[in-house]
Task: inverse folding
């Protein structure tokens, strides 16, 4: 996952913008009475690539949810009268060697990949935020032990472990979510820890401690919210990283397995016949490219909108 940082600065459109790690919560003042949320939204909407990414992602989600309504076939149905047939009026994306409709498989595969990617990204961000912020707040032995575990897990060949564990779990997509989360939080947690070390010395944290607020409440209410921009950007880009990881595992036979399908399993099936039956590879590959490109555009747009010191953010995000 990308390691994003957030620094405060004065934006030319705003009379006063709150620094992300300010010692008190302020209302952002902007021309026309714009609040902080509306100011961020305006910056984001000025980024044409980011808006394009949102549109593409929304269309992909709609396709994965409602695409099955436009075909009479399910991804498990087999038409033995049309084996490895090119796209036609009956099978819009063609069929594979077993007579399965590629359109129906693409709808289900995209939905499965999206569920895995979004779930893993959300869980990873939550785990990383809690562990990283806790290590920074408590300091001392807790901090040293947490960093030691993070550094150890970062050098472990996680992909091989993921492949072995996923294979033992027979390709259960729910188990795949758990495994990808267990081995995916460390990099983000280290970034969260690095930023949180400065937050633990802030006056609002000291004031909360003086008032008898518990450590967990301080971490959840006073430290993690100030990491919002960093976590949002990492959440978005984490979807891309998870999609690629799940696709790679499924492509190698260690991820989602039949009768279930994902974009990775479809790519694996189509790779062997990419010259004789290119539609088997082209359609899932196209969906994968659209998904990764859209999330990358959205992540870049969020980073620029939330960070007024970035070049595109300061310029209004015009591209």
Result:
């Amino acid at each position: 996952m990308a390691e994003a940082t957030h620094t405060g600065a004065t934006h030319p459109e705003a009379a006063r913008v709150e620094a992300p790690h300010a010692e008190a919560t302020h209302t952002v003042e902007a021309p026309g009475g714009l609040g902080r949320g509306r100011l961020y939204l305006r910056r984001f909407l000025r980024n044409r690539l980011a808006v394009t990414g949102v549109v593409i992602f929304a269309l992909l989600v709609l396709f994965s949810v409602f695409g099955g309504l436009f075909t009479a076939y399910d991804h498990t149905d087999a038409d033995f009268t049309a084996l490895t047939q090119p796209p036609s009026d009956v099978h819009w994306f063609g069929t594979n060697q077993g007579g399965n409709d590629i359109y129906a498989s693409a709808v289900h595969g995209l939905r499965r990949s999206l569920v895995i990617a979004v779930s893993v990204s959300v869980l990873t961000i939550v785990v990383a935020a809690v562990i990283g912020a806790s290590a920074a707040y408590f300091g001392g032995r807790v901090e040293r032990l947490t960093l030691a575990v993070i550094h150890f897990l970062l050098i472990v060949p996680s992909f091989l472990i993921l492949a072995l564990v996923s294979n033992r779990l027979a390709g259960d997509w729910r188990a795949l979510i758990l495994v990808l989360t267990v081995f995916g939080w460390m990099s983000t947690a280290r970034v969260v820890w690095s930023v949180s070390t400065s937050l633990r010395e802030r006056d609002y944290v000291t004031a909360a401690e003086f008032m008898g607020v518990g450590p967990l409440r301080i971490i959840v209410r006073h430290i993690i919210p100030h990491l919002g921009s960093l976590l949002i950007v990492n959440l978005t880009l984490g979807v891309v990283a998870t999609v690629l990881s799940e696709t790679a595992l499924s492509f190698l036979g260690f991820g989602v397995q039949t009768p279930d399908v994902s974009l990775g399993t479809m790519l694996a099936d189509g790779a062997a016949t990419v010259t004789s039956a290119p539609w088997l590879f082209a359609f899932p590959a196209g969906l994968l490219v659209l998904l990764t490109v859209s999330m990358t555009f959205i992540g870049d747009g969020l980073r620029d909108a939330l960070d007024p010191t970035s070049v595109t953010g300061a310029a209004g995000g015009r591209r």
In short: Confidence is low (pLDDT under 50) at residues 1-33, 312-319. Residues 31 and 275 are 58 Å apart (CA to CA). Residues 102-138 form the longest helix (37 residues).
